Amino acid sequence: DYSLKVMDHFSNPRNMGSIEDSDGVGEVGNAKCGDIMKIYLKVENDRISDVKFQTFGCGAAIASSSMATEMIKGKTLEEAWKLSNKAVAEALDGLPPIKMHCSMLAEEAIHEAINDYLKKK
Amino acid sequence: DYSLKVMDHFSNPRNMGSIEDSDGVGEVGNAKCGDIMKIYLKVENDRISDVKFQTFGCGAAIASSSMATEMIKGKTLEEAWKLSNKAVAEALDGLPPIKMHCSMLAEEAIHEAINDYLKKK
Ligand code: FES
After folding, report:
1. Which residue ranges traverse the bilayer (chains A, B) (predicted)?
2. Model pTM?
């Protein structure tokens, strides 16, 4: 069963949506389930001033992206890069093992978005 | 990529939620991805007068449950039993092969809910 924090971030996701004038966008697919995740970043002075996500993924993907985006908001790009899906799962009080791959989507899409920002800069 | 109908039923799902005084409830899990689906039925004169679903599943599971519940509303229990996930996928103008198993959740949960109703009756 899912933790209360997972259910909270699933039913009431934070930072869902897109950013029109974003500074970096990352999109990744999950080979295991075919789901996709898109992350939009707004960057100011090397810090993430805003972040949004869109996904076609499951409840675990939604909850972990909601938590991951909360955790990197206001952080430097370097700090955001270091956020692992395990840290996100811990902050959610755990995810079932079969759902850990869903939380990888957010981690990978954040990396892609940071790379996209650095490339454009 | 997903069809317009899939995107429509995903972004704007029909019949999402629960029915307090339901006549039958079906809950199934997906061994492949760990997701769950719950279907609530209201039955009048052997016809499905109302139906709602809840899921932790992905966009494909949401879209196919939205479409499946639309397709069985007003139908007899026998007609509803015969609804296959293939017919639902066709009504959605197709689903990627890797996502066909997600559409099984709705079909199986409808069967469970009808069985639950018949058992209680
Ligand atoms: S099953 Fe695909 S993101 Fe969770």
Report:
1. none
2. 0.87
List CB contacts of A12: < 8 A, sequence separation 6 or more: none
- Which amino acid belongs to residue B51? V
Q: Which of A33, A62, A104, A108 to mutate to test the pocket of ligand 1 (most atoms within 8 A of CB)?
A: A33
Q: What is the mean pLDDT of residues A74-99?
A: 96
Task: For a ligand 1 pocket test, name from A58, A98, A107 the mutation site with the most ligand atoms within 8 angstroms of its C-beta.
Answer: A58
Q: Report the pLDDT value the prediction gives residue B33, as an integer from 0 to 100.
A: 73
Instruction: Judge whether A118 and A41 are in contact, CB under 8 Å.
Output: no
List pLDDT tens digits, range A27-59.
999 877 888 999 999 999 999 999 999 999 999
Of the residues A80, A95, A102, A113, only one is catalytic, namely: A102
Cα separations (Å) of B1 from A66, A112, B16? 24, 20, 24
Among all chains, which residue has been given the structure tokens 């707004």?
A: A42
Give residue for tokens 């869109």.
Answer: A54
CB atoms within 10 A of CB A115: 13
What is the C-alpha to C-alpha distance for residues B31 and B102, in angstroms, rounded to an integer? 10
Whether residue A65 has its Cβ less than 6 Å from ligand 1? no
